[in-house]
């Protein structure tokens, strides 16, 4: 499935009676890369979960390739092309690495597993190990690889670098950039490391208490230290 555009219009969502996201609107062209920033607890994970249909929606539209998927169940959104790599690394702990990857293939041939092993050689070495036997970083690799194997048209990444060694982080970010620039996927990234987030993305949005307080290009944010300090709470971005 090639990359598709994503447009979110006035989305409000939360958990049970608690509204977390309010009136969130943004759009990402097909094949573009967006980073979502904000301090802890500001709603970044809730935004990705809401796009995937895992929260309660109070209002708004989610247009994937121009068609509203907001009324669809999570599994149907996945079939339409949305793919989430959650912060919780939801791998099957009692299945092997290879069985986990096979579960992500959807209707693709088994030979496609090679793509995952090329991206993460460590997973090939551990392909007969069970999910629970993997380190945190390896679980992160497996969760990411399994979602990418399904070839989503819009990929949602929730802190995919957590627990990975710096050299693997760099390789992984380069792989994400290639997937987007090759027109294969549109990518939304939640990432705490602001430098990685800015290096990765064309554009950025900042969430504060469930609302978008700033949207613009990575370059514009990089050159405005005041904004970074105000909304993200860190100093200079180099
Ligand atoms: N399952 C849930 N039920 C009720 N409230 C929740 C639930 N998950 C998150 N929240 C609340 O929603 C708000 C936003 O949380 P969220 O996890 O989306 O923030 P975040 O920006 O991703 O934070 P972090 O950077 O720490 O991961 C917080 O106030 C949090 O307490």
UniProtKB/TrEMBL annotation:
GO molecular function: ATP binding; ATP hydrolysis activity; branched-chain amino acid transmembrane transporter activity
Residue ranges of every copy of the ABC transporter domain listed in the record: 6-234
CDD domains: ABC_TM1139_LivF_branched
Keywords tagged on the record: Amino-acid transport, ATP-binding, Nucleotide-binding, Transport
Domain of life: Bacteria
Gene3D superfamilies: P-loop containing nucleotide triphosphate hydrolases (3.40.50.300)
GO BP field: L-amino acid transport
Family annotation (InterPro entries): AAA+_ATPase (IPR003593), ABC_transporter-like_ATP-bd (IPR003439), BCAA_Transport_ATP-bd_LivF (IPR052156), P-loop_NTPase (IPR027417)
Pfam families named in the record: ABC_tran (PF00005)
SMART domains: AAA
Protein family (similarity comment): Belongs to the ABC transporter superfamily.
PANTHER family associated with the record: ABC TRANSPORTER ATP-BINDING PROTEIN, HIGH-AFFINITY BRANCHED-CHAIN AMINO ACID TRANSPORT ATP-BINDING PROTEIN LIVF
Protein name: ATP-binding cassette domain-containing protein
Species lineage: Bacteria, Pseudomonadati, Pseudomonadota, Alphaproteobacteria, Hyphomicrobiales
């Amino acid at each position: 499935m090639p990359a598709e555009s994503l447009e979110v219009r006035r989305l409000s969502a939360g958990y049970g009676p608690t509204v977390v996201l309010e009136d969130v609107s943004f759009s990402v062209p097909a094949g573009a890369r967006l980073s979502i920033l904000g301090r802890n607890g500001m709603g970044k994970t809730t935004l990705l979960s809401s796009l995937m249909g895992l929260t309660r929606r109070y209002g708004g539209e989610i247009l994937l390739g121009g068609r509203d998927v907001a009324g669809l169940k999570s599994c149907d959104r996945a079939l339409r092309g949305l793919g989430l790599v959650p912060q919780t690394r939801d791998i099957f702990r009692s299945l092997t690495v290879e069985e986990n990857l096979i579960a992500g293939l959807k209707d693709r041939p088994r030979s496609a597993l090679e793509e995952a092993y090329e991206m993460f050689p460590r997973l090939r070495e551990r392909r007969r190990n069970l999910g629970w036997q993997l380190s945190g970083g390896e679980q992160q690799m497996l969760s990411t690889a399994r979602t990418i194997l399904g070839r989503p048209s819009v990929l949602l990444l929730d802190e995919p670098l957590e627990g990975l060694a710096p050299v693997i982080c760099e390789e992984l970010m380069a792989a994400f950039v290639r997937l987007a620039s090759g027109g294969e996927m549109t990518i939304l990234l939640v990432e705490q490391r602001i430098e990685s987030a800015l290096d990765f993305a064309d554009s950025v949005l900042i969430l504060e208490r469930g609302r978008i307080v700033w949207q613009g290009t990575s370059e514009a944010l990089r050159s405005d230290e005041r904004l970074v300090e105000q909304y993200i709470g860190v100093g200079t971005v180099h």
